[in-house]
Write a structure and sequence with these properties.
It is built from 6 helices and 5 strands, in the order E-H-E-H-E-H-E-H-E-H-H. It is α/β, with parallel strands linked by helices. The chain has a single domain, classed as Rossmann fold. The radius of gyration is 16 Å and the shape is globular. About 30% of the residues are buried. The structure holds adenosine-5'-diphosphate (ADP).
Length: about 160
């Protein structure tokens, strides 16, 4: 059975990577599907996120990365996936995730959403937290893969005149 793991991944964190790693033990193939969201202005472009994730999963032979826009269930179908993989951190994630899972079930009856509980050490971690810490000059090396931390420092901590 294959799974897609959809999300914004702006940028990928160690919490995301933990879910992918554990997903790779459960499924034949896990496709990290980066959502193209026209309503959000991301810190990293789609191409940058694909490169960051590609490097972060290079050691996982059954993980791959792709971009998508449109419905998550259509993304699952086009990637020959029967499962939508999502991570659950805290109770507040649950309501929205359950709503999405139910909605997706009405759109594609044969696709299941599977939730993995976050590993304890990452329960506080989100891409937004990482960006917030970096914006105020704090360290993020313990929150994201090393090459992503480097990208973040370049993007967030450069002198204002150098920022795009
Ligand atoms: P979205 O904007 O769709 O929530 P994210 O990139 O923020 O996209 O997250 C993608 C998925 O990864 C979601 O299911 C989210 O709950 C999960 N996730 C994010 N951070 C963590 C974490 N620290 N531990 C476990 N799951 C996580």
């Amino acid at each position: 059975m294959n799974a897609i793991y959809p999300g914004s991944f702006d940028p990928i964190t160690l919490g995301h990577l933990d879910i992918v790693t554990r997903g790779c033990r459960l499924f034949e193939q896990v496709t990290i599907a980066i959502l193209r969201n026209p309503n959000k202005t991301p810190l990293f472009t789609m191409e940058e996120r694909i490169a960051q994730i590609g490097e972060a999963i290079a050691h996982l032979p059954n993980a791959r990365v792709a971009s998508f826009d449109g419905l998550t269930v259509d993304c699952a179908k086009s990637n020959q996936s029967q499962v939508i993989l999502r991570g659950l951190r805290v109770l507040s994630d649950f309501e929205m995730e359950l709503q999405m899972a139910h909605t997706n079930k009405t759109l594609a009856e044969d696709i299941e959403t599977v939730f993995l509980a976050t590993s304890n050490e990452y329960s506080f971690l989100s891409s937004s937290v990482v960006k917030e810490v970096a914006r105020f000059g704090g360290p993020v090396d313990h929150l994201v893969p090393a090459h992503v931390a480097k990208d973040i420092y370049q993007r967030c901590c450069a002198p204002p005149a150098l920022n795009p």
